[in-house]
């Protein structure tokens, strides 16, 4: 059995590793060049300055050890005195082990440049067998040198081989990096805050929550975007106000002739009661159609979104549907709060339930919280809607009913989308139609 692995896609892997937010990505733009620059600076410092100083320190210690061995070789009787003088002046700790034969020690677990530099220097200054290893105490480096009658063990203080400025440089490097990160984070957070507020204001305005103009802040480009958004809000408010005023006038102008026509019919004695009833029915239907068209054109109007108890709203809508002859059952939790335009959402849900009542004998309505959203289900046992027609029927003036206006589902969809939600027409388990509504929680 062969397993085929797809081609590696570095771009996709990199995209997953990168922060998704603007703040994280902006901070990364600052951090990566800074880390590369400081890494190069550390390498230059360590590879040139520090490495040279380490070799010089190791050479000085090796020279002192070589001088001590030369003095002992010249006069072995002065060995003890020479070792004492070396301990005093060179800060060594020397011990002579009689009749000891030097064995090669295993290499240390983590050999470093310091003991390597010292070993190389000792080769030039000490012409005897030796080995170098870190002492069991971290503060010393042990040098064992084979003599004619034993081994001299020399513990060299660690500070003789290390330069303290390395740690100062490292602390300065890390400290300056942290300070730069903090300053960059504070600066970037201020810049990103303006963009986040702009995005939140745009989302709120798109869902119908008019929170007023936002205060421009941040970089000049962000300020220009915020100012342009405030102007756009003002233009939209003015447009909606003008449209509402115009629609109110259209409603008045259309209903006035219909009212006069109804009064004229009532004053005609020659018209039979049956004809009069048919004409009044036609006039009522015309008024109903005008109301539907005006509601669709008016949209959500100026109603503000407020926290609302969804179970209470659904109970009122279902009670009205029962009075109209619907067989309907409702299932909701006791408390389920959502930010809604109550009258707009009432109109949307009423349209959906009325559509179900015209095509089904039984309706089931339920609402529940689903993760971060609220789900409303309207099920019926009617004939359902073919899958290929569902998206079409959500558009204005599309209807399968011969006498329908095709605006009920369109109005419902527009209202739900304006709330930041989604509406889906699905198959109900067991047959019929399921209308699924997802609203922000």
Explain this structure:
- It is a single chain.
- The protein is rod-shaped.
- It contains eleven helices and eleven strands.
- A hairpin with a 2-residue loop joins strand 8 and strand 9 (373-380).
- Among the domains are: 45-163, Beta-Lactamase, CATH 3.30.450; 303-440, Heat Shock Protein 90, CATH 3.30.565.
- Residues 106-111 have low confidence and may be disordered.
- The strands form three sheets. Strands 6-8-9-11-10 form a five-stranded mixed sheet, with helices on one face.
- The chain has 441 residues and is of the alpha+beta class.
Notable traits:
441 residues; alpha+beta; Beta-Lactamase; Heat Shock Protein 90; five-stranded mixed beta sheet
Per the CATH scheme, the topology name of the domain at 303-440 is Heat Shock Protein 90
The rounded Rg comes to 44 Å
How many helices? The count is 11
Distance from first to last alpha carbon: 49 Å
**Mean pLDDT, as a whole number?**
80
CATH architecture of the domain at 303-440: 2-Layer Sandwich
How can the largest sheet be summarized? 5 strands, mixed
Q: What is the percentage of strand-forming residues?
A: 15-25%
Class of secondary structure makeup: alpha+beta
Topology:
Layout: H1 10-17, H2 22-74, H3 79-89, E1 93-98, H4 113-125, E2 130-134, E3 140-146, E4 150-157, H5 165-206, H6 220-266, H7 273-298, E5 306-309, H8 310-323, E6 328-331, E7 337-340, H9 342-359, E8 363-370, E9 373-380, H10 390-393, H11 408-418, E10 422-427, E11 433-440
Parallel strand pairs: 6-8
Antiparallel strand pairs: 1-4, 2-3, 3-4, 5-7, 8-9, 9-11, 10-11
């Amino acid at each position: 059995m062969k397993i085929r692995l797809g081609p590696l896609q570095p771009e996709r892997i990199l995209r997953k590793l990168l922060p998704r937010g603007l703040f994280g990505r902006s901070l990364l733009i600052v951090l990566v060049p800074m880390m590369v620059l400081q890494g190069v600076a550390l390498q230059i410092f360590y590879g040139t300055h520090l490495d040279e100083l380490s070799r010089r320190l190791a050479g000085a210690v090796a020279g002192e050890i070589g001088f001590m061995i030369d003095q002992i070789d010249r006069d072995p009787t002065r060995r003890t005195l020479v070792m004492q003088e070396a301990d005093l002046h060179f800060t060594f700790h020397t011990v002579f082990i009689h009749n000891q034969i030097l064995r090669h020690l295993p290499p240390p677990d983590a050999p470093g440049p310091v003991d390597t530099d010292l070993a190389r220097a000792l080769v030039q200054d000490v012409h005897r067998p030796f080995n170098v290893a870190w002492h069991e105490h971290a503060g010393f480096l042990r040098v064992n040198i084979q003599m004619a009658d034993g081994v001299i063990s020399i513990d060299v203080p660690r500070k003789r081989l290390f330069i303290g400025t390395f740690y100062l440089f490292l602390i300065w490097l890390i400290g300056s990096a942290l300070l730069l990160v903090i300053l960059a984070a504070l600066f970037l957070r201020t810049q990103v805050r303006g963009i986040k507020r702009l995005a939140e204001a745009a989302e709120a305005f798109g869902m119908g929550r008019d929170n007023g103009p936002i205060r421009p802040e941040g970089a000049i480009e962000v300020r220009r975007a915020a100012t342009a958004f405030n102007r756009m809000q003002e233009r939209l408010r003015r447009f909606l106000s003008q449209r509402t005023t115009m629609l109110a006038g259209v409603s008045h102008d259309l209903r006035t002739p219909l009212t006069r026509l109804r009064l004229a019919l009532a004053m005609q004695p020659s018209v039979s009661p049956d004809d009069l009833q048919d004409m009044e029915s036609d006039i009522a239907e015309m008024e109903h159609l005008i109301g539907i068209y005006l509601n669709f054109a008016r949209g959500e109007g100026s109603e503000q979104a407020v926290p609302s108890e969804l179970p209470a709203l659904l109970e009122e809508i279902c009670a009205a549907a029962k009075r109209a002859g619907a067989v309907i059952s409702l299932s909701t939790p006791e408390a389920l709060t959502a930010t809604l335009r109550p009258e707009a959402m009432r109109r949307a849900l009423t349209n959906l339930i009325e559509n179900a009542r015209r095509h089904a004998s039984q309706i089931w309505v339920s609402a529940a919280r689903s993760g971060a959203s609220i789900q409303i289900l309207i099920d019926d046992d009617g004939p359902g809607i073919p899958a290929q027609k569902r998206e079409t029927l959500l558009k204005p003036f599309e209807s399968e009913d011969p006498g329908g206006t095709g605006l009920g589902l369109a109005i419902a969809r527009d209202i739900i989308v304006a709330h930041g939600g989604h509406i889906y027409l699905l198959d109900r388990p067991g047959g019929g139609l399921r209308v699924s509504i997802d609203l922000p929680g």
